[in-house]
Automatic annotation (TrEMBL):
Domain 4Fe-4S Mo/W bis-MGD-type residues, every copy: 10-69
Organism taxonomic ancestry: Bacteria, Pseudomonadati, Acidobacteriota, Terriglobia, Terriglobales
One Pfam family named in its UniProt record: Molybdop_Fe4S4
Annotated protein name in UniProt: Anaerobic selenocysteine-containing dehydrogenase
Cell membrane keyword on record: no
Keyword Repressor assigned: no
Organism, scientific name: Granulicella pectinivorans
SUPFAM superfamilies, alphabetized: ADC-like (SSF50692), Formate dehydrogenase/DMSO reductase, domains 1-3 (SSF53706)
Length: 716
């Protein structure tokens, strides 16, 4: 054997991790050339944010790609098998394999019939971010549903409150790039589980800390990030507006605001109004302490340290605001209030300063070209179809009329697990008169309700173009391996359905054409960024007007062309919070959190990932002060309940949460005791702005379950 053949046995393909994560890592996939099989995934060392490493979840991605229980063929529910939970590992018994031709034909006929009888809006597409690649997330699927006249889905389940908040203040979702955190003089991680959810920011934070920066974490849960920080402020859930106003109170009272910056960059009158508002007595640190649970002197200290960062270190103060803050009833206002802090102290002008919530709005992908909303006008409706909020899926499936939802087409999502008010969602999905198609990689809880199950790709099996919601680099992901079995991507699946049902030429477009369309724009941020360049270089940085966003007035994209602070952020306690009337029956604030070793409900079914998460699986964490009066000790089975539902978990009494707060982690319903998931307890209440889900405004009560010695579910 000579060296040449040795080298030729493997090759490396550049892909992009398309999981719903702010890091959008560059991934190098090693392929065994002869077999075409992927043998290794690693972080792209040339990617400025990935810097050569992947998170623990995706380091084991090949376990998922080659899992023996992948869905590889189209399937149809067997006649007579009712919809609903199937025993894990035996799901295939409920379905029979069919060909793609049969699947396309039979699904088309059913959708045509439903549209004819009930109107096309009775068809509801339901999708989220199983992949955040532009084509996988929303391209041919949108053309198909628009052309049909199906209901439109308002995709609110994750970030719409925060998105609306940022847009209302700044006019654009842009922020400090992760690399710049290395130059920060102080960092606040505000509702941001950096270690669990945004690991590639961590090395930059560590670099800043080595150079003297302090890291303060504001989170009701003691995350690993909080444990590793210089300070952890365990704020009570849903009270962030007040903490931000308390900080502003101190800053304005002591004259630490940046007057020149406010004058130049904020809409005339707004800064003065905010100052008057913040200086009200109810925003004084002692008053704020009583509600947030953070001591008054800590608030004073935090505000002073934050506002004087530049004066004392010559570096900027950065806030990593993440989505935890906006998943509550008044989360939009809270995100707005926090987002005003860097304006008040002018930290956008300083290297290492500013704020990051989401950078996704900085990528000017031409979604009008890829998704063709104008096709709605060619549908039988001849107008834009109705919009259904995905955070109200339970209501959509059980009470919506005119027309009722008669067909649901699920892709990139596992609503049976992730959608709030799970009992309503499952009741709706179990309807025998609901026609359900699910495009998936695995037999998820949602798949248990499918009439037709279609096999979907992992990011190794499809080509795409991707932005990011945590950094400012565009990337092309090459198809690293042939799709397994008969797996088809979004472009192929909806292209064929569209061709069969409507025949329009737009359903012939393929990946490269769609990528070109996505990049065709005269927006300056994409100047010089083409598919060919991304294919050659892997990634390319957006062309921003300068290195420091919002350092000058011309960055703001609001109507006034300045930062806008009105309406002023007012603190309102959540209806589901500790001092509200509802707390008399359900006194504990519940945090139904994400698992650090899973991605929402993705990876839950892999033994390797389960091992990493074993300590937390099926666990309810509670504070000793709450456990003792309820007679609960670690290891006890407890029932967590409210008017919407009840679940069983094992208590772990610790101080990861403060008094009055209990926490658990998301997993698959069918792998949980009693087969209901955390979202059996959450509500369909929407956020104050943006119509988002309010997972973190959930009141519950907990009691020790009487042990009967069997595994019978507690309810249902
Ligand atoms: N490992 C892993 N990574 C992920 C995900 C995953 O499931 N697992 N999910 C991905 C997705 S979809 C998203 S959107 C991102 C989200 O990433 P993050 O924005 O970090 O979102 P969360 O984990 O929802 O919330 C962050 C933190 O906010 C805290 N929190 C809850 N309520 C409040 C509050 O009222 N105030 C404050 N200050 N903090 C609060 C929570 O305890 C949590 O630790 O992560 C992505 N990355
Ligand atoms: N209690 C509670 N509930 C939550 C949250 C929480 O923190 N707590 N987080 C909320 C948030 S922030 C979010 S973003 C949502 C996430 O909710 P979802 O977007 O539903 O996320 P996942 O549970 O990861 O499910 C994504 C599914 O898409 C599939 N998939 C991946 N790639 C593809 C593809 O190319 N094609 C198709 N057809 N399918 C694919 C995966 O196999 C996976 O089953 O959950 C929300 N729900
Ligand atoms: S999940 Fe996030 S951190 Fe992990 S590889 Fe994907 S993009 Fe990177
Ligand atoms: Mo999310």
């Amino acid at each position: 054997m000579n060296a040449d053949t040795d080298i030729a046995t493997t090759h490396v393909v550049h892909a992009v991790c398309s999981l719903d994560c702010p890091d959008s890592c560059g991934v190098l996939v090693t392929i065994d050339t002869a077999s075409g099989r992927a043998t290794k995934v690693q972080g792209d060392p040339t990617h400025p944010v990935t810097r050569g490493f992947l998170c623990g979840k995706v380091a084991k991605m090949l376990d998922r790609v080659y899992a023996p229980d992948r869905l590889l063929y189209p399937m149809r529910r067997k006649a007579g098998v009712p919809k609903g939970k199937l025993a894990h590992g035996r799901e295939a018994e409920a379905f029979e394999r069919i060909t793609w031709d049969e699947a396309i034909e039979e699904i088309s006929v059913r959708l045509e019939g439903i549209a004819r009888e009930h109107g096309p809006e009775s068809v509801l597409p339901y999708s989220y971010a199983g992949t955040i690649g532009q084509l996988g997330y929303g391209s041919m699927d949108r053309r198909f549903f628009h052309r049909m006249g199906a209901s439109q889905l308002d995709r609110t389940i994750c970030s719409s409150a925060g998105g609306a908040a940022l847009t209302s203040v700044y006019g654009i979702r842009l922020g400090t790039k992760p690399q710049d955190y290395a130059k920060a003089g102080m960092i606040l991680a505000w509702g941001a589980n950096i270690h669990g959810n945004n690991i590639h920011l961590w090395p930059f934070i560590e670099e800043a800390r080595r150079n003297g920066a302090k890291l303060v974490v504001i989170d009701p849960y003691r995350t690993r990030t909080a444990a590793l920080a210089d300070e952890h402020l365990a704020i009570r859930p849903g009270t962030d507006t007040l903490l931000a106003l308390g900080m502003m109170h101190v800053i304005f009272r002591e004259g630490l605001e940046d007057k020149a910056y406010l004058e130049a960059c904020v809409r005339p009158g707004d800064a003065e109004a905010l100052r008057t508002h913040a200086l009200q007595a109810e925003h004084a640190p002692e008053a704020v302490a009583a509600v947030t649970g953070i001591a008054g002197e800590k608030i004073e200290e935090l505000a002073r340290a934050y506002a004087t960062t530049f004066a004392t270190s010559g570096k900027g103060a950065a806030i990593r605001l993440n989505y935890g803050v906006q998943r509550s009833e008044n989360g939009g206002t809270a995100a707005r209030a926090v987002a005003m802090l860097p304006l008040v102290i002018g930290s956008w002008q300083h290297e290492g300063g500013g704020l990051t919530l989401s950078t996704s709005g900085s990528f000017p992908f031409n979604t009008t070209a890829t998704q063709m909303p104008e096709l709605m006008l060619q549908s039988p409706l001849g107008r834009a179809s109705r919009v259904v909020n995905m955070s109200e899926l339970g209501q959509a499936l059980t009470t919506l009329s005119d027309p009722p939802v008669k067909a649901m087409f699920v892709y990139n999502s596992n609503p049976a697990v992730v959608a709030p008010n799970q009992n309503a969602v499952l009741k709706g999905m179990a309807r025998e008169d609901l026609f359900t198609v699910v495009h998936e990689q695995f037999f998820t809880d949602t798949a248990d309700y499918a009439d037709y199950l279609l096999p979907a790709p992992t990011f190794l099996e499809t080509k795409d173009v991707q932005g990011s919601y945590g950094h400012l680099l565009a990337q092309v992901s090459q198809r690293a391996i042939e799709p397994r079995g008969e797996v088809r991507n979004n472009v192929r699946l909806f292209g064929e359905l569209g061709k069969r049902m409507f025949g329009d030429a737009c359903f012939d477009d393929r990946e490269d054409e769609l990528i070109d369309q996505a990049l065709t724009t005269d927006h300056p941020f994409f100047a010089g960024i083409t598919r060919e360049r991304l294919e050659r270089e892997g990634h390319a940085a957006l062309v921003l007007p300068g290195p420091l966003p919002f350092s000058t007035a011309d960055w703001f994209k609001t109507a006034s062309g300045r930062a806008e602070l009105k309406p002023l952020p007012m603190f309102v306690a959540a209806v589901e919070s500790r001092n509200a009337p509802a707390a008399r029956a359900y006194p504990l604030e519940f945090l139904p959190r994400k698992a650090d070793n899973y991605m929402n409900s993705t990876f839950v079914n892999h033994p390797g990932h389960q091992r990493l998460e074993a300590k937390n699986a099926g666990v309810l964490e509670m504070h000793p002060t709450d456990a003792a009066p309820r007679g609960i000790a670690s290891g006890d089975t407890v029932e967590i309940f409210n008017a919407r539902g009840s679940i069983a978990l094992k208590a772990v009494v610790n101080e990861q949460v403060g008094e009055g707060v209990v926490a658990a982690r998301l997993g698959w319903n069918k792998l949980s005791a009693g087969s209901a998931g955390l979202n059996a307890l959450t509500s369909e209440t929407l956020t104050d702005i943006g119509g988002g889900a309010t997972f973190y405004s959930t009141l519950v009560e907990v009691r020790r379950a009487v042990s009967t010695g069997d595994e019978r579910p507690l309810h249902q």
